[in-house]
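Risk register update: the risk of archive-format incompatibility is retired. Evidence:
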Amino acid sequence: MSQQYEKYCEKYAYSTQQKMQLKKADDEGLDLSYMCDPRYDWEQMKEIRLCLSQGIDPTPFCHPDIPSEQMKGMRQGLFENNAVYDAKHEAVQKKRLLRYIIVAVFIAVIVSVSALCFWKKDTITNMFQSINLELKTDNLSIGESKAGSIDYMDYIKSYSKDYHLTIPKAKLDKMGTYRVKYVLSNDMKKIEKYMIIRVYDDVPPVLSISKTDESIAYGSSFNSESYIQSAVDNEDGDIKDRVKTEGSVDCSKSATYKIRYYVEDDAGNMTEKFLNVSVAEKPQQTVIPSAGQQSASNNSQQSSPPKTGGSSSSRKVTASSKVFNFSSSSDMNQTYNQAVQYAQSQINAGHANGYNVVPIQGSDGIYTGYRVTFS
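Archived output:
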């Protein structure tokens, strides 16, 4: 394998068949510069190689716009003309009469060719008509979000309107490198242009969290990861385990906290969501004195009354303790209000002297509701 073959293979992106023709020519020691143009298809390269292998200059038909079939005809004509030249040279040396015959045949050929040209003038005109196809770029990078709706006409700078234009039909439906072909042609010749398109991932992952606003009881616990529902990427699939969080919640301080959730795919595309967490005020223990206690308190500020028979200054407690769970109402505050209303109703009915409303904490440290007790 020669250096010129390696040089051209490194410089141009040939197809397998094109490389095969170059390799055959290189093995025969031929000059590859005649056929190295990547615009030649492999059949055109073959005709140039066959011409070179016979020691004949292929320059007359070395043009990418000349189809391989026409090249073949021109090559055979060159072979014949070369043979005629050799025969003529030999005839001059041997027989003068043979030279006259050859000249006559040559004139007949010229006349025939002229007649053919006149008869096929439209075809010949198409063959030699100028053709132009120019792209805006031969290398394009485009995001996956836009590749599916690409308009190939947008990348044509100019082209000959009298010719038939064929644009690529490749669907760029996933990441990768694509080689697309534009063709401009008439009945006799055509021109091809190639564009390399690199499709990259620009689609961010889809991140879902169960809520964007949350209210929790004072002193309860908070686990930010429990709000993560899913994280799915168009290329990487399920990436829920990559979700990260920023921010914290202090359940011992009443305030509103912001938690940031974010996830990034392999291509660096990122999605973020936010959760606002409100920690309620600390519950207060409430004790309401009975009417007897209020009277005794008032009397203590006045002169002491005379002693009489009778005894107790407090009621007998007949009210039952009761638990109010967060799960039975819409939010924590409503649960607390229900507990206070129940306690007040028992006091008003004379079933107790006072009450306490205290939060209930489970074995896992999470607050689940309030308990009302009476005194």
